[in-house]
Each structure stands twice: as C-alpha cells, then as structure tokens.
Amino acid sequence: MTKAEKMELFHRDNIADTAERLFSINGIEKTSMDQIAKEADYSKSTIYVYFKNKEEIVLYLVLKGMTEIKNGISEIIDSKDKSDEDKYYQICQVLVSLYDKSPFIFSHMMETIEMKKEERLKVPLLDDIYQVGEDINEKIAEFLKTGETNNNFKLDDKAEKLSFIYWMMLSGVIMFGNKKSQYIECQFKQNKEDFLNQVFAMMLGIIKK
Q1: pLDDT at residue 45, rounded to an integer
Q2: Backbone torsions φ then ψ of 178, nearest 5 degrees
Q3: What average pLDDT values come out for the chain (209 residues) when binned by 10 residues?
Q4: CB contact at 8 A, 39 and 22
Q5: Dist CA 173 CA 168 (whole Å)
Q6: How far is CA 76 from CA 72, 123, 140, 141, 186, in A?
Q7: For residue 112, what are the CA distances in angstroms to 72, 115, 205?
Q8: What pLDDT is recorded for position 108?
Q9: Distance (Å, rounded) from C-alpha 104 to C-alpha 82?
Q10: Is the dihedral of CA 182, 184, 189, 194 positive or negative?
C-alpha cells in the first residue's frame, strides 16, 4: 500500500467511525453529512471526496465488519493446533465480539444484499460485501467438511447450505440474546454470556457426533 493509499484509508476510517457513532446515537436519517463533517473535524467538501452519501458510509462500515469476521474466522479455521469443537466456539466468539464492538454494524450486516450481479456492480461496495459474505460461507463450509472428515461432525445436508444456516442462526441468536438480555436474566437467572454459550452448545449438538 502506497503512502497516498494509507492516507486515504486513514481519512475514510476516521469519517466512517465518526459517522457510525452518530448513526448509533441519532439514527441514519437524523444524522446529516454536515454533522458528520463537524464531528470528524473535516470540511463538508472533504467528506464528499471520500463518500458520496450516508448510504455509502453504511456500506463501507458493513464491509469493514464483514472483512473483520472473515479474517478472524479464517485465522481460526486455518489453525493446526485447535480441535474442531474449539474452533466452533471461537467462531461464535468472533461474531459476539463484533456485536459487542458495534451493534450498528452487526445489525446492518444482516440486511438484504442484492443478489443480481448486474445490480451489485452498479454499487461496487455492495458487490464487495457480497463477495466477502461468500468467502465467509465457503470458509465455514470448509470447516464443516473437515469436521466431518475428522469424524467429529455429521452433516445431513450440503456443507455450503449448513454453513449459511449456521451463519443465520448464530447471527440471530446473538442479536436477540443481546436485545433480550434483561429478560434472560430475570426469567432464566442467567447472564447473557452464559445463555449464549448454552445456545451455541445446543447448536453444536445438531451436527456433533
């Protein structure tokens, strides 16, 4: 990466991180580009050099979050000194960590991604998000296949489909568990962390031999 590219990334990240804080507090609609510029200490014209609008900032934040997940999962799955079960729980924690770090990014990751290639290509960031999502799905599928080969998992469907199912289930459980943390504590006398770990164990039991 050249010095100019590093500086561009620095400024884009500064602006996006500032926007994320404002979006989380005020919502996207009630946050203006003027507010983002003022809070980030940039001129409005400079903001528009890096982002066309608020929607592009949101997509950039989602891409960052998805890339963080992909890198975290890849590092875990490629490790040679962890059991398949340990890898599973660490993958769960990668998602938990992103939610704890940014509920805003996590929730927007779950929104619909345009499937038609010709439509995605009109918005390059949207296509980038789609491709990273496919990379994550393929990596988890690889993990499931390896677990089956190691005689630790029993897959009743294609690994690629199960990978998507687990991604969907884990994401939903983490979001719902966080939003209902007070209910969980009152009704089940468990903290959020213990509850989530119990659900993760139940989900593992579906495929574990």
Answers
A1: 94
A2: -70, -45
A3: 88 96 95 96 94 95 95 95 96 96 92 77 89 95 96 94 94 94 94 96 94
A4: yes
A5: 9
A6: 6, 31, 10, 14, 34
A7: 23, 9, 29
A8: 92
A9: 31
A10: negative
pLDDT at 112: 66
Q: Which domains does the chain have, with CATH numbers?
A: 1-51 (1.10.10.60), 55-207 (1.10.357.10)
Nearest to 108 by CA among 35, 20, 173: 20
Nearest alpha carbon to residue 110 among 168, 59, 53: 168
CB 12 within 8 A of CB 60: yes
Q: Which of 58, 68, 50 is nearest to 132 (CA)?
A: 68
Supply the angle between the helices 84-101 and 124-149 in degrees, to the nearest 10: 150
Can you give the pLDDT at residue 118? 83
Residues sharing a CB contact under 8 Å with residue 22, sequence separation 6 or more, in sequence order = 31, 35, 36, 39
Q: What's the rounded Cα separation, in Å, for the pair 36 and 135?
A: 32
Residues 6+ apart with CB under 8 A from 153: 84, 144, 147, 207, 208, 209
* 60/14 Cα distance (integer angstroms): 12
Amino acid at 170: L
Predicted confidence at residue 133, as pLDDT, reads 93
